């Protein structure tokens, strides 16, 4: 099995974290410039009154500070590029896993893993990671405070402990609410997306108010949880800010007292105050970045889960292009995430050049069977074999190229007609697209559209009529010379001319030696098949030559009359 690309990407990022830490070492060493400068100015220059020394010290300090800022700039550029590389390494993997995971658990909302990539990348490239890299420097800065005087050291350490405690309290007090807000936010987005998919029905049936009410309820949950988390976090943040400011006053006061007692030099007062500030800075940053930390950690958890649940597809032997023999044995089909089979014990075989009609009343399980035949749903029992090899033994993408599939509700994508027919393949040849359109008898129809093959069809192909969608979907099904073509009610939206064209397509596909299976209620199309499979309540009621099955009093006629 291939290594998990998420882990690989994180391993690569580890090198970047090491580089960031190396930058941080130099940057933090340069943090000593300001306190050292103060010590020199107050304790040496003011006594010696040497202006030349002051000028040289100032010049050196400015150079060092410029270097420090230059390094910070380079560090952020390195992080940004590494973040982009990290994104590149996992984005494709996440996208394909989201598809697999959604097929397995349609209600699982795995699409949000795509947003998690952004969250994690933002954390890895932003101040969050820098703050973490700076954190190990805190003890060193505190040690220097002790070096000035133990009292200074204790004040700074006490301050760091308080600020840290506040950060942890922040985590505990906001964790649950932030998690709730994320889940509620996903629910609201999911709901609004599905509403927007059906805007026409929403307007026509006056559902706006009720749907808006439902969305508002979900949205309010997000706002309430966020507001609660933000209230708690804001209170702690202002306490933390007060502690920081109070500490500065205390440290200056303590320094002045120690200077009066001649325990430290006057320059040490300012230097100690700067040093304590540096020690507390990473803690402050961590507190400020807490929300981002939490969200990045949740994103990390969800991404790890999806990579764990959907492991890398094992490399499979590439099988030769199939002739198209589809054999189904004792097949049982259940919807993803459910156990009860919708289709039971189906056995039949389709040879190249044959057409099989799948018939039966509504809810008989015809579409469920079609889904299993093209490998969308895995068999709950039994097998589906293409040229003798079970569908699971084929590479998913390779298998898709050997199948043509037209689902009942067509499912076109936002893009041009040409892109839809070519299944969005980047290297699609125009000749192949036109060949598929001609084979599907839709070339002329496309030519009559304002932009021909370049016509944008909108989300779900909404800018086409129902019949046009179905015929473009048929062209997509036959694109790329597939061996097996499965059509689920391909004539549901067709007029007489469209139906005649469809009958011609089935005839042509048979002549070309393709295996054709279609679900239909239309006798004229069923008559194009050599064999018919009759389903009722998920069970095979008959399978045989269409002319026998279409005889009066046969199973199919009985089923239709019962319908
Ligand atoms: N994704 C799903 N999850 C759970 N049950 C499902 C799912 N899809 C379909 N079913 C159920 O499976 C049964 C068969 O549905 P299917 O769509 O396969 O029937 P059909 O024969 O194609 O019907 P029609 O002719 O109306 O399209 C139905 O009872 C339906 O409720």
Question: What descriptors fit this protein?
Answer:
transport; 6-stranded mixed sheet; Rossmann fold; ABC transporter transmembrane region fold; 563 residues; 2 domains; 4-stranded antiparallel sheet; binds adenosine-5'-triphosphate
Q: Please, what is the average pLDDT? A: 87
**Which stretches are low in confidence, meaning pLDDT under 50 for 5 or more residues running?**
none
Tertiary shape: elongated
Small-molecule binders here are: adenosine-5'-triphosphate
- CATH architecture descriptor name of the largest domain: Up-down Bundle
What does the largest sheet look like? 6 strands, mixed
Strand order of the largest sheet: 6-7-8-3-9-10
SSE class? alpha/beta
Alpha-carbon Rg, integer? 34 Å
CATH fold name of the largest domain: ABC transporter transmembrane region fold
| CATH superfamily heading of the largest domain | ABC transporter type 1, transmembrane domain
Please explain how this structure is put together.
This is Peptidase. The chain crosses the membrane at residues 12-33, 53-74, 124-144, 150-170. It is found in: Cell membrane. It is a multi-pass membrane protein. Residues 326-562 form the ABC transporter domain. The chain is of the alpha/beta class and 563 residues long. The chain has 2 domains: 5-309, Up-down Bundle (ABC transporter transmembrane region fold); 326-562, 3-Layer(aba) Sandwich (Rossmann fold), CATH 3.40.50. It is 64% helix and 10% strand. It contains 21 helices and 10 strands. It has helices at 5-30, 33-48, 51-104, 113-125, 127-134, 138-148, 150-197, 199-204, 208-260, 266-288, 290-309, 366-373, 396-402, 417-421, 430-439, 443-447, 466-478, 496-511, 523-526, 546-549, 555-562, and strands at 326-333, 343-350, 355-359, 379-386, 389-390, 403-406, 484-488, 515-519, 531-536, 539-545. Strands 6-7-8-3-9-10 form a 6-stranded mixed sheet, sandwiched between helices. Strands 2-1-4-5 form a 4-stranded antiparallel sheet. Strand 4 and strand 5 form a beta hairpin. Helix 1 runs antiparallel to helix 3 (51-104). The protein is elongated, with a radius of gyration of 34 Å. The model has no long low-confidence stretch (mean pLDDT 87). Bound molecules: adenosine-5'-triphosphate (ATP). The site of adenosine-5'-triphosphate has 12 residues, from helix 12.
